[in-house]
Amino acid sequence: MARRRAALLFTALLLLLFAPSPALSAAAGTIVFTTLGRSRYAFDIFALPLNHLALSSSSPFKSTSPELRLTDGISVNYNGNFAPSSDALLFVSERNGSHNLYLSPIPKPSTSRRRRQALQLDDDSPSPPPTPLLPWSDPAALRDRPTLTRDGSRLVYVSTAHPAAAPRRSWAAVYSTRIPHSLSHAHAPRRLTPPGVADFSPAVSPSGDWTAAASPGAHGWAGEVQDLRTDLYLFRTSDGSRRTLLVEDAGWPCWADDATLFFHRRDADGWYGVYRANIDVSHDAPSSTSVERITSPGFHAFTPAASPGAPGLVAVATRRPGSDYRHIEVIDLTSGTYYEVTRPLAPRAHHYNPFVSPDGARVGYHRCRGSGNGGSPPLLLESIRSPAPDDFSLFRIDGSYPSFSPDGKRIAFVGLPGLYVVNSDGSGGRKKIFSGNAFPTSWDWKRKGVIYTSVGPDFASESTEVDVVAVSLDDDDPSSSSQVSIKKLTIGGKNNAFPSPSPDGKWLVFRSGRSGHKNLYIMDAEDGEAGAIRRLTDGPWSDTMCNWSPDGEWIAFASDRHNPGGGSFSIYMVHPNGTGLRRVVHSADAGRTNHPWFSPDSKSLVFTSDLAAVSAEPISNPHHYQPYGEIFTINIDGSGLQRLTHNSFEDGTPAWTPYFVEPRDVSETLQASGMCAFEDCYWLDIDAQPEDHGYAHGNKIGC
Fold first, then answer.
1. 178: part of which helix (H) or strand (E)?
2. 8 A C-beta contact, residue 703 and residue 626
3. How far apart are CA 509 and CA 403, in angstroms?
4. How does pLDDT run across 475-485, given as a tens digit for each residue?
5. Which residues contact 225 (CB under 8 A, 6 or more apart)?
6. Which domains are assigned to the chain?
7. pTM for the full model?
8. What does each C-alpha distance from 420 to 401, 416, 481, 486 come to in angstroms?
9. Is 516 left (phi over 0), alpha (psi -120 to 50) or beta?
10. Could you report the per-residue pLDDT of 680-703, keeping only the tens digit for each?
């Protein structure tokens, strides 16, 4: 009875914290946002045979068989796992606007003697479409790390289907569902993770009786973007019972047999290593009888994979000194020999998160499929599933800082560098109207074709020369560069950015560092500060990312004024005359809520935040710039918080138009030459300087 009361209390708390927002339904329309780098990812899952490993030889393993592509080149496919029979693949894919789980038959290897070259797709025959594993589930939630039990009757996976009980707590939890006869008749899922707790990276024992998962436990998430403070917990796969803390300071578990677990952790010198734990599950409280490191310091080894079909072998992803790339290696634990699997095939490509077939015959992983290899092209506009009503659409754009024109027909955005305009239905392709380094965009409400932005270095200090400009283009032909004019509105630099016009077209609010601190100012929209300027906020803190409401009553902005310099940002609102200052949403101490934008009816805000913490172990997702940041909406009175996106990327810079854009993916007309050309996590470089952190530096990833 006490357990039932606790569950009811937990449910009531979730409904209170994340109740659906009536303002979102009333405002409707379309929200567009950016996900850093995501539009240009092109991951597929591949496999190589392990039966050519010459375990008696100390020479590197070089497969004489072709690398087999297991997924179809559509969308982003990653975190694979073999089905118990080894003839089918479980994997995560982002097709159809959501992270879902799929099952696909393993294609037959090519009969051609031609050896497949690195980054070349299997073009022998088209792959059959994969089968969605959870056709009935919430389409907006993230699903990850799928595993089928040995008899194929139960699916275990991670999902963000239910809210956490507090801000900055992860929604990620382990779920189980029975699959009685066919995948299309799956039962409703059962949550195995207790209320108020998050679990990542589940692994099911070979018998299917036990599941191990990495969990931050009671200490939760403290904003880590490098190493999550997780421990390994063990619990019954059937119902989550007998949950026991097994190993402290550990992540990414995998089973060799029901008495042996492998996992990774980072040591005091900064190196990731793989460890083996011997466990005893014969008692009421499972326990670890011994823990030993199986990899040596001096290089990184993480995300281990083992299989009962390959006793004495464990596959790991490594980053060795002198290499900028992750590669898959197999360790023979008997001899201590390392066998290179992927580096001989593609030394200058990343390979991620290995998994070994139940029969031990193959090792799988995901990597970029490369550019020009077929499959789906990158998307300029991607329709994203959301919990919003039918008269609302949500899009990811291949760019940053998007904004809609007043009539909703165009979107301006930046490419870092470059300022672009595209029709909101994607027709005609994107048009570059400025080639320099531009940042946040907003359209003038009254003067057609006028776009406000700021130009200068990115992530600049208060004194760096950054200026607000007005870019005017011919409304009938935005692609004609000869019809574009640029007018500088601010004087003397000093980090002027985030311009947003008043709805009457007379004024422009912006952020400036001219006083030595980033505060808000209002200037003449047409003549700039040479016409008129006044200070709106004043203090030794950062007020930034401002947006003027469509009804003219409010200016929303992000600020750390509650803890200047502490790294925590909240959303505030103030009247244009400087009165009525109040905080709308706060993401707890050290949390971040940024980039507010008003709804068309001025009654709610869309913004990005770390309110939902992280959804995966950062080390397993090196292509994710930051492993947090989702899109939310909230009423301006602070009620009705609603989460719109579910992923483990960094979502941000949303904008809202009252016009409904038909949900439809729009392919990019410009092919990027450096598809997937990103670097690994900067913090894996042991010699990296402390200040080299944060967002992407060039192609360097902040993970």
1. strand 173-178
2. yes
3. 16
4. 655 545 557 89
5. 618, 626, 627, 628, 702, 703
6. 21-37+378-667 (2.120.10.30), 43-368 (2.120.10.30)
7. 0.90
8. 11, 10, 11, 14
9. left
10. 888 888 764 333 333 332 333 445
